[in-house]
Each structure stands twice: as structure tokens, then as C-alpha cells.
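Continuing from the previous page...

OK, I double-checked the sequence for Flagellar motor switch protein FliN against my notes and this is the correct one:
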Amino acid sequence: MADDTQDVTPASPFTQVPIEITISVGMARPTVRELLRLKNDSILPLDKKVDDPVELYVGDKLIARGELEEIEGDPSGQLAVRLTEVADLTSGL
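Thanks. Re-ran it with the corrected sequence; updated C-alpha cells here:
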């Protein structure tokens, strides 16, 4: 993943199309028995710790890593991701 930032100039109308980014905070591997026993207030342990980086994906392509944080001054406690590593998306096409 590259650390440098690049200016992106809109060269086509496709640059205005919104995309969905999935933030992965971890993975769980319960058995089928454990899965069938899940109910409200069940705890499902993940393979990551609270301070571990999260991964950002578009589809199945890893595009960045970052840290979860609350948006400062937001009374609802809305989450955001501060990017720490960004992939070089211009290569490999």
C-alpha cells in the first residue's frame, strides 16, 4: 500500500458515481452449533482487538487500512475511519 497522496481530477462522469466501501473490523469463526445458539445479547468473539487496524474494501479488493474513531463533536457517537495506508489504485489495470 502506498502512503503518498494523489490529486484526482474528474476526467469523466464516472468519477461522480458513488461506490460502497465495506469496513472489516474482524472475523468470527463459530461452529454451526454456536451459530444456531445465537440470540439477542450473545457475544461473538472476533479475531481482532479494539486497537487493531480495520480494512477497507471495494468488492473484494483491499483499498486501504485505517483506525476507527468517533467523529469529534458528534453527540450520537458516529464512527469514522482515519486512513493509515492507502493502496495505489492506479497500478495493475
